[in-house]
Design brief:
Distance between the termini of chain B: 28 Å
Oligomer: heterodimer
Structural class of chain A: alpha+beta
Shape of chain B: globular
Number of strands of chain B: 12
Number of strands of chain A: 16
Number of domains of chain A: 2
CATH architecture of the largest domain in chain B: Sandwich
CATH class of the largest domain in chain B: Mainly Beta
Chain lengths: 354, 191
């Protein structure tokens, strides 16, 4: 057990364990792996809809580049004393519906996040009529017994060459800092029929399934990363500064309050500091309360008010366009008070900037 | 919880979602590994296996929840609950919060990946900045966060994770705040 024990001191060392099993060398193919060479690149515990007993354990064993896809090798383990009748119960209510019909309905959705690039890569899509995911057989979900961990593979869109680490989402849990490797994990299990008990060799990603799979469009979703001031009245994300309408205006008003004028001035200073392009678009947004036409009109008036204040605060040199979107572009749920507050906003979008 | 025999350090190492990362900060305490780490998961393969293939489930089944770094009482979705925060882990381009709610009422808290606005936030008190859950717009035009969806309170802890924007290198501690819980929870950032 020297290899595992020593390697788990750090990610880097844990990665070394992975290297022992990763393919790319013909010598590895078909050879028996040492029992202590199971790569453990990250773990999460999950209960799903289960409310008693120990949680299930999700472990990432490999994120491996292959032709036209990225294969995530992961295991689901259920400790002794499990209270669930079906292992899939540990995946939670949304996993089995999350982007259903498109991605791994039977085996949960697996996505790979490259936060630095602001992207989360989606699962591959099967083209066969009777397949619900580009992944291993669903019997892994149904045949798992307590005290056992079984390995599953899931195909995700190809990662760009420069991506060395990703954050893996499995079973609705984000597992951070997983290194990306090349080639399938070896050795393969002698019996390529599920279940694939951890340690008995790796499943071979179905070549036919992979060959006929397609990359979802888009292959990756763009992430919106919001950072706001402590009052959460000014929120910055890539290419956008968003102002909370509740701070800018009184209810149903399109006249900036004193605090609103100051907030716009703060946003102008931020835009200047960011050295954005000179073309700005100011867009008013409303929540879903009230009629569509009222919200459309109010959002247009508010956008114009902010644009006027912004023009004054920026001191010229910018081309500012004001538009209203009404309630058509919510960024949060309109079913909650907090969500509606997020939707009532005026955004300033730009290109470029630091 | 199954504990693999004679693997004390292994047990430590698989304590949940962030354990490996947490251990990475423990430099200088132990001798360096005596194995031959390559530092890469993309190169060589084993040519000298030491033992035959066998069921290694025990390697992973010993994982446990990380300890609670701090907690706050309040209510979530109208039910009294305790917000328990375990870890905030910095990743390349993001941050991952692990937390869970506990309470006496057995109920499903539906505020999940469709309700980023209801989730906890990370606050950099020094810079007075609030980091909100990272979202994306799915193929149906719905905004979702990279968050665990619905979870039960009551019964055993149901761990949840949320992906946040990257924290600057200078941030060593953040406060975790959530509407409904008055007391912020201060948590070190694991790098």
């Amino acid at each position: 057990m020297t290899t595992v024990r020593s390697s788990l001191r750090s990610i880097g060392a844990a990665t070394a364990v992975a290297a022992l099993l990763v393919a790319g060398s013909p010598a590895a193919s078909g050879t028996a792996a040492a029992a202590d060479e199971i790569p453990i690149l990250g773990q999460a515990l999950t209960m799903g809809t289960v409310t008693a007993g120990p949680p299930a354990v999700v472990t990432v064993h490999g994120v491996q580049r292959v032709d036209n896809a990225t294969i995530v090798y992961w295991s689901l383990g259920i400790p002794e004393g499990s209270q669930a009748e079906f292992a899939a119960s540990y995946f939670g209510p949304s996993t089995l519906l999350f982007r259903a019909k498109r991605t791994g309905v039977n085996q949960s959705d697996v996505t790979l996040t490259d936060g630095a690039a602001g992207l989360t890569y989606r699962p591959m899509e099967p083209t066969g009529k009777f397949r619900t995911c580009v992944c291993g057989p669903s019997t892994t979900m149904t045949d798992l017994t307590p005290g056992q961990a079984q390995v599953i593979w899931s195909a995700v869109a190809p990662l760009p060459a420069g991506v060395a680490t990703v954050d893996v989402t499995i079973a609705e849990q984000v597992i951070p800092n997983v290194p990306v490797g090349d080639g399938p994990l070896l050795p393969l299990a002698e019996d390529q029929k599920a279940p694939f008990v951890l340690g008995m060799g790796w499943p071979e990603p179905d070549p036919e399934l992979l060959a006929t799979a397609r990359t979802s469009q888009p292959a990756a979703f763009e992430l919106t990363q919001r950072v706001s001031n402590i009052e959460q009245s000014v929120t910055t994300s890539t290419g956008e500064v968003s102002l909370a309408a509740d701070v800018l205006f009184a209810k149903n008003s399109a006249t900036l309050t004193a605090k609103g004028t100051k907030t716009v001035a703060d946003a102008a200073a931020q835009i200047k500091a960011t050295e954005t392009g000179k073309a700005l678009t100011v867009t008013g947004h409303a929540d879903s309360d009230g009629s569509n036409s009222y919200n459309q009109s109010l959002s247009e008036k508010r956008a114009k008010a902010v644009a006027a204040a912004l023009t004054k605060a920026l001191g010229g040199g910018y081309t500012i366009t004001a538009v209203g979107k009404g309630e058509t572009e919510p960024i949060a749920s309109n079913k909650t008070t907090a969500g509606k507050a997020k939707n009532r906003r005026v955004s300033i979008t730009y290109t470029g900037g630091q | 919880m199954a504990q693999p025999p004679r693997r004390p350090r292994l047990t430590l190492a698989i304590l949940g979602v962030v354990s490996v990362v947490a251990l990475s900060s423990c430099t200088g305490d132990d001798p360096e590994p005596s194995v031959s780490p390559t530092g890469s998961a993309s190169s060589s393969a084993s040519t000298t296996p030491s033992t035959p293939l066998s069921d290694q489930s025990a390697l992973v089944l010993g994982a446990q929840l990380p300890p609670v770094a701090g907690s706050s009482t309040g209510d979530v979705a109208g039910a009294p609950a305790t917000l328990n925060v375990a870890t905030v882990v910095a990743t390349k381009g993001g941050s991952v919060l692990t937390f869970w709610h506990t309470g006496t009422e057995k109920m499903l808290v539906n505020a999940g990946d469709l309700s980023w606005e209801a989730q906890p936030v990370l606050v950099d008190v020094g810079e007075q900045k609030v980091y909100e859950p990272v979202t994306f717009v799915d193929e149906q035009g719905v905004t979702r966060c990279l968050c665990t969806d619905a979870a039960y309170i009551g019964g055993v802890p149901q761990p949840r994770t949320i992906f946040f924007p990257e924290l600057p290198d200078t941030v060593t501690t953040v406060e975790v705040r959530q509407a409904g819980f008055d007391k912020p929870i201060s948590v070190p950032v694991t790098r």
